[in-house]
Amino acid sequence: MMPLWKLEPTAPLGSPFEPGSRHDVVIVGAGLTGLTTAVMLARKGMDVAVIDAGGVAELTTGANTGKLSLLQGQTLAKIRRNHTTPLVRAYVDANRAGMQWLTAFAEAAGVPHTVRTDHTYAQSPSGLDAVRAQHFAAREAGLATRILAPADLPTTPFPIVGAVALEDQVTIDPMLVAQALTRELLDAGGTLHTGIRATGAHAVPEPRVETADGPLLAQHVVLATGTPIIDRGLYFAKVRGLRSYCVSFRVPGNVPEGTFISVDGPTRSVRPVSTEDGPGATAQLVVGGNGHPVGRSDGETAAIEDLVTWTRQYFPDAEETHRWSAQDYESHNLIPFVGAMPRGFGRIRFATGYAKWGLSNAPAAALRLTAEIIGTDRHDRPSWMTAISTRLTVPADIARGAAESGRVAGALATGWASAASRAVPVPRPAEGTGTVANRAGRPVAVSTVGGVTRAVDAVCTHMGGVLDWNDAECTWDCPLHASRFAPDGTRIEGPALRDLRRLPRSGRD
Question: Looking at residue 424, what is its pLDDT?
């Protein structure tokens, strides 16, 4: 499960960690949000430190498809369904600002990229209404989209019965972007600490980030961690964690020149790869889709195999090179949350809820975070910042939130009931598999990976959800709020901060 973009990771590893050091800003997360914010602040002369439990672009950024588009599938139509045109326009303007910043940075830093036409398309007639709705919402928001007549549809091996197109969108290698951002940050005197896990953030008596290796002090803290690692504001309940899958292929002959994402299921995202926007000598095509809420899947490996089967149906000679998945967070109304954390006294900020469109939403969030930290007067900020920050919650948003809360409650009850139905000892799981059973009234998770069988507490350390085995990545995933853990219980991502308790094995359990 290694993303295509991580063939040759060359980002600097960072500098030695010094507990108690002081900075103007400490940013938690060395993904696209954290790095773009860090670079913008460093350009303003601020002393910035970035920390990450892993490395640069360890998780979502490094697993991005590398599609930088303002069309974004059905996103605009879904927002417009329950919100006003000005809010949709503000969302588009924010993403346009993020896209312009990122492409300008790439050009200045020598990161190659390709300009392509992006398509939101229907695989069958049942999807045509959704295509038209996306076109109308995009046009209202100021995008020069066009509905393609049947004669103008692009020639592709896979079926397209209708599409809306937007020209001058971009494909780019997300790892090259992250590495270039890291280099600029370090060249500007910024600090990078990899392998340092944040365990909390506080605004009083002075702003600081707690880590497993000691605190870092700052005037401002930015949580660029996918979903906030502190529960103020309950944002873990205002977004839902989603996993989606990608497979790259070596394809002899031609591949489509544009990028594509379907409106009707199962979702198919298609992106060509060239030497100008990725390791084109290794693969020429990336196919993605089959997303689902974290921890709520009938089989992650099956979702990937379905993508492989679909690709080989339409590209018969396609040879798989890499497969991977990514996790992102979606707010209930598809507008990201960006800004000051409640009860953070204006010293702790965060960003979350990009709904898989982080290449433009992340730099847009960074622009807003930077404006707030440096104290740009509200009247001097772009209008989209004000429009998004003052958005109103409508009944449909509340209904979607209530529905998701119901699903979370259902997953909580189902997980505990399922665990109670099977007592230890259990047979040793086969290689690459895991099972949850009950030991003295407590769910226990047993897995075998790399020939090693381990037992850990099966209860998420965040809100008590019973974990589910991810058979594609060999991880324990929480179906409540998307925390994930390695087989040995080490926390990987999500709102959980503590590792799972490791348990002794006895007999067959």
Answer: 84
